[in-house]
Backbone:
C-alpha cells in the first residue's frame, strides 16, 4: 500500500510540476518542487521487494510450516526497514538459543528476539557496518559474530552479544586475526585461509595452530561469509564454485556444475538447515526444495591430497625450473619495456580492461577520489564501505595487469598536498 500511495503521489506531482512550468512567475516555487520531485523519483525507485537470504538454523524440533512462513514474513519486514536506512543486507540469520529465536541482519549489528509472533530489536547500540558479511552462530547459550568486512578492511575479530546489557563485546584475543573461513567446533571455531589453519578456543580464550591443517585451500576473493552453510558434518561455501569440506577428515570436494542447484548462491528466500540437510523455500514460501549433502555429493569431485614426498618433489622441481626460466623472463620483459612506448593510442584494444584503457588517457594527471570513482563506474555505489572495497579491488586488478607488462604500477595513492586529511591518485610517472 505504501508503494501504491507513493506512486499515486508521484504522478500527482508530475502533473503539478507540468502546470508550474507554464508560469515564469513561480520560478522559485518551481525550483523547490523540482528538488522535491527528484527526491520522490529516488524513493520510488529505491522501494522494492527485498531480495535476500534468510538462513534459519533449526536445531531443535523442526518448526512447522505455518510458523516458518510467519518467521520469514516478519524477517522481510525487518529487512525492508534496514534497507531503507541505506545498509544493503544480503543475508539474515535466524538462530536458536534454547527455546528462543533471534534474528541478525548481517552487518547491521541489530539483534531481534522473537516475541508475540514478531521481531523486537533488543540491541541498544546504533553501530553498523563493522562486520559486513560476518558468520553468526551460537556457542553455549550466547550469540557470536565472527569476521567480515568493516572500516576499510577484512578481519577475523570475534564479538559476543551480552543480552542483559543489550550490547556487543569484542573478545580481545581475536583482535589481530585476519579474515578466515571456518566452522563451529565444541570449543569454538576451526578457521583457515590460504596461509594457515587455526583453532579458536572461545572457552579458554586462546588461539593455536591446528595440527589438522587443510592440505588444499581455495581462494578468498572477498572477506564475506554470505554464502556459507555450516552443516553437522560438512561445511559448504560458494565462492567461484561450490566447495564442500568433510569436517572430520578435512577432505575437500568441489563442483562447478549444479551442486545444490545453485540455490546457495542465487536463491532468494529461506534456507532451513538441520543436520546435513537444507530445505530451500522460494520467496513466496509456497515452493520448497529438500536437499541433502548425501544426495548432492554426486555433483562434487574429490580433490586429491598430496603426500609430503610428492610435495617435496614438486617443490624442488619447480625451484629448479624457476632458477632457469625466471632470469630469462626478466631479461625479455626489460628488453620489451625499453622498446615499447606506453600510450593508449598505440594499443587501444590490447588490455581487455576498459578501466585501464580509460586511465591510460589520464597518464601524468592527479585524480581526486570522485574523479577516479567516476572512471571506475562506482561513484554511485553505497554504502561507502562497499564503494571503498570495490575501489581497492579494481585498483589492484588494474595495477596487476599493468605491472605484468611494464613491471610498474599505473595507479599510486598519495596524500593530498593541499589537504593532508585526503588522498589523491596519481596516474603513471611514479
Residues:
Amino acid at each position: 500500500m505504501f508503494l501504491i500511495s507513493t506512486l499515486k503521489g508521484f504522478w500527482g506531482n508530475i502533473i503539478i510540476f507540468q502546470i508550474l512550468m507554464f508560469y515564469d512567475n513561480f520560478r522559485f516555487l518551481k525550483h523547490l518542487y523540482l528538488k522535491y520531485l527528484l527526491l520522490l523519483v529516488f524513493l520510488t525507485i529505491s522501494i522494492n521487494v527485498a531480495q535476500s537470504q534468510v538462513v534459519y538454523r533449526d536445531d531443535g524440533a523442526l518448526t512447522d510450516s505455518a510458523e516458518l512462513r510467519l518467521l520469514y514474513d516478519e524477517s522481510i519486514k525487518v529487512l525492508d526497514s534496514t534497507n531503507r536506512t541505506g545498509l544493503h543486507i544480503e543475508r539474515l540469520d535466524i538462530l536458536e538459543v534454547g527455546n528462543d529465536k533471534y534474528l541478525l541482519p548481517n552487518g547491521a549489528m541489530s539483534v531481534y528476539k522473537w516475541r508475540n509472533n514478531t521481531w523486537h530489536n533488543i540491541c541498544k547500540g546504533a553501530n553498523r557496518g563493522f562486520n559486513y558479511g560476518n558468520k553468526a552462530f551460537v556457542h553455549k547459550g550466547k550469540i557470536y559474530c565472527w569476521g567480515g568486512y568493516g572500516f576499510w578492511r577484512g578481519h577475523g575479530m570475534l564479538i559476543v552479544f551480552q543480552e542483559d546489557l543489550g550490547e556487543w563485546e569484542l573478545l580481545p584475543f581475536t583482535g589481530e586475526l585476519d579474515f578466515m573461513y571456518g566452522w563451529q567446533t565444541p570449543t569454538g571455531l576451526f578457521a583457515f585461509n590460504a596461509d594457515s589453519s587455526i583453532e579458536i578456543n572461545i572457552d579458554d580464550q586462546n588461539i593455536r595452530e591446528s595440527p589438522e591443517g587443510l592440505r588444499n585451500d581455495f581462494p578468498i576473493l572477498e572477506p564475506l561469509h554470505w554464502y556459507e552453510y555450516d552443516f553437522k558434518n560438512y561445511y559448504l561455501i560458494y565462492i567461484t564454485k561450490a566447495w564442500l569440506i568433510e569436517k572430520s577428515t578435512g577432505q575437500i570436494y568441489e563442483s562447478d556444475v549444479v551442486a545444490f542447484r545453485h540455490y546457495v548462491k542465487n536463491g532468494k528466500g529461506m534456507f532451513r538447515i538441520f543436520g546435513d540437510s537444507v530445505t530451500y523455500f522460494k520467496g513466496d514460501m509456497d515452493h520448497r526444495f529438500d536437499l541433502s549433502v548425501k544426495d548432492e555429493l554426486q555433483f562434487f569431485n574429490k580433490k586429491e591430497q598430496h603426500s609430503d614426498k610428492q610435495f617435496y618433489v614438486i617443490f624442488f622441481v619447480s625451484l629448479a625450473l624457476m632458477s632457469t626460466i625466471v632470469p630469462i623472463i626478466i631479461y625479455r620483459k626489460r628488453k620489451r619495456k625499453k622498446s615499447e612506448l606506453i600510450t593508449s593510442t598505440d594499443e587501444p584494444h590490447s588490455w581487455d580492461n576498459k578501466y585501464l584503457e580509460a586511465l591510460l588517457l589520464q597518464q601524468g594527471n592527479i585524480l581526486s577520489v570522485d574523479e577516479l570513482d567516476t572512471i571506475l563506474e562506482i561513484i554511485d555505489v553505497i554504502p561507502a564501505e562497499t564503494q571503498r572495497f570495490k575501489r581497492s579491488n579494481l585498483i589492484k586488478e588494474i595495477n596487476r595487469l599493468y605491472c605484468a607488462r611494464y613491471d610498474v604500477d599505473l595507479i599510486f595513492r598519495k596524500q593530498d598536498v593541499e589537504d593532508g586529511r585526503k588522498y589523491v591518485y596519481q596516474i603513471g610517472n611514479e
